[in-house]
Amino acid sequence: PEKRPSSGGIWYGGRGEGDSERGQGREGDQDTLGPPRPLEEGPCQRRAPPRGWGTPVGGGGLAPSTKIARAPSKPSKTSIEGVLKAVGRSASGGAARVEAQGEAKRRVAGKQVEEERRAGGAAHLAREDSTQDASSRLAPEGWVNAVSERMPQREGPRMSINVSLARSSKTILSMVARNLNWIEREREETRACLHWVVTPEELEGRLLVRKPNQRMSRIPGMYMLCGKVKFAELFRLLQRREPDKYNFIPRTGIVPDDPEEELRSIVGKGYGILKPDEGTQGDGIYLVKDMEEIKRRMDCIHVESAVLQSYIKKPMLLDGHKFDFRVYVLILSLEPLRVFLSHEGLVRVCTVPYEEPSRQNLHRKAGHLTNYTLNKTNEFYEHNDDPQNGARGTKRNLQATLRHLARQGHDAEDLWMQIKNITGLVSGALGRAVRGEVEGFDRSKLWPLGVYRTAKMSGCKTPFGDPSWEGWERDCFHVLGFDVMFDEGGKAWLLEVNCNPSMAIDTVYPSTSPPELPHLDEGVEALVSEAMGHVRGKGVHVCKCTAHHRPHLHRPCPIDLAAKHSCVNGALSIIHRDYSARKAGAFASPEELAEGLRYDVIFSEA
Ligand code: ADP
């Protein structure tokens, strides 16, 4: 049941589709921005990580870039080039060709940037006369083709994916499977190279019957680690050791564990934001001013624990509205730890103009929180159905928005580099924490009790000794959603890592007649018509479900489709290359795995 605060603070119980899979968990690019380059040494990245901790690639010049690594124990039977060629990088492959052309263009653009930089020194994006050029470097032409081209796979092992437990991700997975020519399996017990699971319980169940080399879409332990309190515990530990490196997470306290004095200092003279541990999609969030309010809110939301964060009160705005970025990160494996950042993502904009928090506006949740679930029912929700347009809409395409910001005089390249730096450092830390390599962090709390019980039954003290878990660090992957916002000074802040980012592609129109779609790029249009058959009511039948309080229509959202199709398409392609390489006894470097795809390597262990 929804509860509302009696006075002050924000509470809102969003329902329906949103930023994460409801109830299942807490729910541009290097190439486009120019050639790979190390970040300038900034305050957040002064120290290199200890040996063996891997390399956040492209982040702060922390360590040399990764080398092509081959498994020493298993001599390569097949050349890696041969394997990769077989899985869709052949010169004759349509998608490969399109992507290669895009890549070539990006390289040329990248070279130009590098030359400009050498010739004219820094701040090439800030030059007034070059803002147009700069914006065109942010997103390469042809990304739409990259999502619509079919990837031929006549050679190499044909991949299969089991989507029986995929829930709201099923539509996008089916579309991508078709695009990549994978076999789709719908019955739970059917064998497949890859099982798409969502909850930790399903993952646990599947791990027990997993076949060698079979891939799982979740990393055990990640679900717990991305919970608000566990995440805060881990990063407080890391921040204490290396405050300059992890200075992109707002000061966070744990309620009720932390002393009142500490909590008071987090709120300071401004406001704090109180978030319940298990909350998602803006659920149960309050802005608070003092200890009394914190206590009152804790009673209201009936949770055992919550985090209190200092509220960033001067955010960067888009036409006077607060916004944040949702970026997608693929952790391909824990052993070795290899992480990739998708170029495509979303921008979520508030529907009410932003005002600094005060007693008068705290109730205007749609001005303070960017969650889609909260904003979709607002009368000012603006549908922007064109992924190429970053200038309008409540939900926008990430790269198009970066281009728009560049045109408005922001250093969009720097914004993107900060995102890369943060995602690289954080996913590296998450990976090490799940592997039990962060000193002082107890990883045993990351596994549900059931895992230990099952392990005990088969005579093991820990699940890792159980034979069915053999190779889990290599075969489990995870797509994480990072929420990043910027303050008015252009500094990035990580708000949350969502272990279960929504892959739903539909949106609701509170209308009984189908809205006109704008003229869309051919590739996106094809995706929309393909997705139309999958959405509730086929896009034309009026629906009265709880997704909206008014009669509405469900339609595929072109913004979601473009971002999520590209993200999943790239992720599955990387997994396929890795799978095929391993089957052939070879080991592909992360750069080889991501080549020609709209992904960057952001963390890698040699
Ligand atoms: P949830 O998991 O419920 O979505 P988040 O941590 O993502 O919780 O917070 C929800 C929204 O609240 C964010 O999308 C952002 O708009 C806003 N928000 C969260 N933390 C802060 C903060 N420290 N300062 C300003 N705004 C914040």
UniProtKB/TrEMBL annotation:
<dbReference type="GO" id="GO:0015631">
    <property type="term" value="F:tubulin binding"/>
</dbReference>
<feature type="compositionally biased region" description="Low complexity">
    <location>
        <begin position="86"/>
        <end position="98"/>
    </location>
</feature>
<keyword id="KW-0067">ATP-binding</keyword>
<dbReference type="GO" id="GO:0070740">
    <property type="term" value="F:tubulin-glutamic acid ligase activity"/>
</dbReference>
<feature type="region of interest" description="Disordered">
    <location>
        <begin position="1"/>
        <end position="137"/>
    </location>
</feature>
<keyword id="KW-0547">Nucleotide-binding</keyword>
<feature type="compositionally biased region" description="Basic and acidic residues">
    <location>
        <begin position="16"/>
        <end position="29"/>
    </location>
</feature>
<feature type="compositionally biased region" description="Basic and acidic residues">
    <location>
        <begin position="100"/>
        <end position="130"/>
    </location>
</feature>
<dbReference type="InterPro" id="IPR004344">
    <property type="entry name" value="TTL/TTLL_fam"/>
</dbReference>
<dbReference type="Pfam" id="PF03133">
    <property type="entry name" value="TTL"/>
</dbReference>
<dbReference type="GO" id="GO:0036064">
    <property type="term" value="C:ciliary basal body"/>
</dbReference>
<dbReference type="GO" id="GO:0005524">
    <property type="term" value="F:ATP binding"/>
</dbReference>
<dbReference type="GO" id="GO:0000226">
    <property type="term" value="P:microtubule cytoskeleton organization"/>
</dbReference>
<keyword id="KW-0436">Ligase</keyword>
<protein>
    <recommendedName>
        <fullName>Tubulin--tyrosine ligase-like protein 9</fullName>
    </recommendedName>
</protein>
